[in-house]
Design goal:
Length: about 350
Amino acid sequence: MQRYFVKNEAIINDIVKIMGDDYFHITKVMRMKCSDNVIICNEDKSWLCSIKEITNDSVYLKILEEVEEKKELSIEITIAQGIIRKEKMEEVIDKITQMGALYYIPIQMDRCNVKINSEKIDKKIERMNKNDYVLHNIWRMNKKEINSFNIKKITNFGIALCMMFTIIFAPSVQRVKEVNTKVSSFDNYNANITKEDKIDYILNKYNLTKNEFNTLTAIVLSEAQSNSYEDAYAVINTIYNRTHAKNWVRSCSSYFGKNNGQSLYYQAIMPNQFVVYQHGTFTRYLNRTDLNGYNAVIDFLYDEKIMHNYLSFRANNIVITGSEKFSTMGNNYFNTLEESNRI
């Protein structure tokens, strides 16, 4: 069952009002209808709720009953792992937090493919310590869990060794990175992340330069119909799907090298795909941060709330049997990403 988090002021008596990104997720992504049930949480409690009304910008839910949830584990878990690529490490941190881990100790092994440049350690620590890097998915899942699970932030690459893990699990350890600062709690988490913070997170997560991100965004805005938020969201979702499709990754790798097949940027500029890039017309949308579609790209890449599993689309005036629209004048989306083709 879907779970959404609200501030206390969104709850009046037994009615909950949801707006913004969660409204979009409920109505456009999950396509929920009146009488569908969800779990609503605030900092202290969780409730089973039923959708009573959907308007142009809000969803109203009625609280049916309080849900008792056991969030704390009876044991303390420490995860020690050899250092991996940054995008994989982010996923690991997300998942072990959901599992209830207390500590995370990245270890530099002799045979690690990823080597830490001592001159860049401070910058890496600073980036990893950003709440939106470590916690941006987790707090949305259950804000209370961050507090109850005592999630610690990665703070230094000191030489202090965790002897238990050194002896039992890591005989080839060069250095152990200890997790040793104050507990990250929801009270200290700044949910009001700025657009610049989100872009910085996106650049790190998808290994994009700012110029590549601007080009990618301009291509999406050029392809989206009528400056539609929904259609821009669907376009970037399509490009994202291609980075997870074996055939598309192979094609992209053949043009730009095997390490670039899963790049959003290279998928977007691949020959014979987006005419707006081939003809250069996308340039008129460079740095158009005022458009709805620009926000849609940021929202999708930051949250990764999947709208669809299509790999292709055509303009709204081209009829495609079995295709789907996501806005009134939007593109027609088709060619589903099959599980057998998924990376």
